[in-house]
Amino acid sequence: RILNEGNDLYYGVKDYSLGDECFLGSNVCFSEWCLKDFREYLKKQYKDLNELNKTWSTDFGRWEEVLPIQLKEVKKDKNNMAAWLDHKMFMTTVFARIGERMKDIVEEATPGMEAQIGFSGMQNPRYSYNWWELMKYMTSLQHYGGMQKDLIRSFRLPGTRYGLWVGYAGEDSDAEKYSRYHVWRGLFNQANGYMYYYAGYALLGDLSFARNTKYAIEELKEAKQGIDKMLLSSGLVSDIGLHYSHSSLFAGMATLGENIWSGAVNSWSAIINDLGLNFEFVSYEQLENNGLDKNKYRVFVLPVSVCLSDKETAALRKYVESGGILVADYGAGIYNGHGSKRDNEQICELFGMERAKDNEILLGGSGIKVREGNTEGLENRDMRLRFGEKGMRLTTGRAYGDTGDAKSPAVIINRFGKGKAIMLNCVLNDYAQVNLGGVGGEISEVKKGVLEINEQVKGLARDIFGMGGAVPEVLIETEKGVDLQSMTKTSVWKNGEINYAGLLNEPENMYSKILPAEATDIKILFKKKGHLYDVREKKYIGEISGNKQIEATIFPAKAKIYAILPYRVNGIEATPGKKSYKAGEVIQVSVKVKTSGGQAGNHV
């Protein structure tokens, strides 16, 4: 117990965990206290009781009579789904506010300490975890895998500490790849914490470190000599925005299936990563309140965003009008933000189509042929994908995809203002699925679809992202010209005039040793111009002009990090504050980076 300026600080701890692997059930809570809060929540969601009754298909006479329904009570035609969906959205705020209440208690007990609060062992979005709501209060998170790592990165408050739980490799395996990989994979996602689960594997009986722990410590030591500060103080380049619609998750569960929405989000995330690009999530509330800046997000994706509010729709129209590229897979805006089905003429006009009265999401067909569109930059593709909707008619949009069904056009491109809105009407959620296994979700497994199908899907996405100028800054291939982008996590950062690029080759067998035979000779093309340095090797490579490849060697799980500077570093100049110092006196020295020309940027 340490006295810290009059406040109690226990053992220097400033991070408080509210619990590990915490959940709410699927139907809680119908208690009188939650119902009272729920009705107050609804009063902010609806202008009056009449509007709620119309949306819910109910006839309540007073707010005190309002009761939600369970999923099993949602009718076949889904006209009362909002009475279930609104309650599920409310319960996610209850779960999130547990953190808010606990933080208030800790801060009241330790004023001025600025405690960090959060959960451990969290799950991906569902009944409990609405990550937009959670991140309003959570500032210390030890999370599991899947999309939550990108949601935390996208929605984190300033000063939030977070990282993925690792350390599950037992000493019965030489898991060098696993141990070294996650140090860098976390940094590549801007994680500023490394969460190592002991599980009996970290220390041996004589208190020496176990083999796999030593691997992790070696990487951590190097990362903490300045590379961590270098990357974490820089901005991760994310040209693509991905819509986070928690109401669409619930609407999908009630209509399409348990994993349709999550499969679409996981697939879009994997496609973007496989193309050597990065993205940020944008929540429903952010979209409503702040809109979208086409200069920040060159492309914005709606992954099965079946629920769109009027404010979200207006923001999307404004984004495209200003020159943005909007992409939807299917079903965009069929329901409003509460899950009530409606004719969204504003969305239909944006995508240059009309939906018939009997329009429905069928997930039908067996293949889509995309024909070349020279004016749009599309290539011919034969994709074994299902279409999403049936009952669509083109107005101002033009279809470049044929599903074999005249009522289900695909790859509809509509020019709207200065930008384009693209309705794919394709089901992409089989590209990648993320499963959380182990005891409570600590082991993350990514399963990808059939390679031949995925390559065509990835190619179509590359064509579409290219329309908005969202193209990779770094291209990687083998000496024989084989594309390695999808097998290498690529991150690009910007810090003033300095750019950084990180490459992390994904291991096939994570729980194994790195062998010399696994070295791959590669060629790397950097789009940026400048003076290139290998950061980890502390080596100057030379000046690059944006069209010249360099040669390198990569190993699975071993990160390569490059710096591209607008000048060459000629040395460091250190000047003491005075000519002489006495023994024991603090020496003050000013240090200056000497460049080949121009003001020095941030250096480590």
Description:
The chain is of the alpha+beta class and 604 residues long. A 9-stranded mixed beta sheet has the order 10-9-11-12-19-18-17-14-15, with helices on both faces. It has a 6-stranded antiparallel beta sheet with strand order 8-23-24-29-26-27, covered by helices on one side. Helix 3 runs antiparallel to helix 8 (246-255), helix 6 (176-188) runs parallel beside helix 7 (211-232) and helix 10 (284-290) crosses helix 11 (310-321). The longest helix is centred in the first third of the chain and has 28 residues, at 82-109. The model has no long low-confidence stretch (mean pLDDT 92).
SS summary, helix count: 13
First-last Cα distance: 35 Å
What is the percent of helical residues? 25-40%
Structural class comes to alpha+beta
Rg calculated over all Cα atoms: 26 Å
Q: Spans of 5+ residues with little confidence (pLDDT < 50)? A: none
Strand order of the largest sheet: 10-9-11-12-19-18-17-14-15
Q: How many β-strands, per DSSP? A: 31
Report the mean per-residue pLDDT as an integer.
Answer: 92
- How would you describe the shape? globular
Largest sheet: 9 strands, mixed
Proportion of β residues?
A: 25-35%
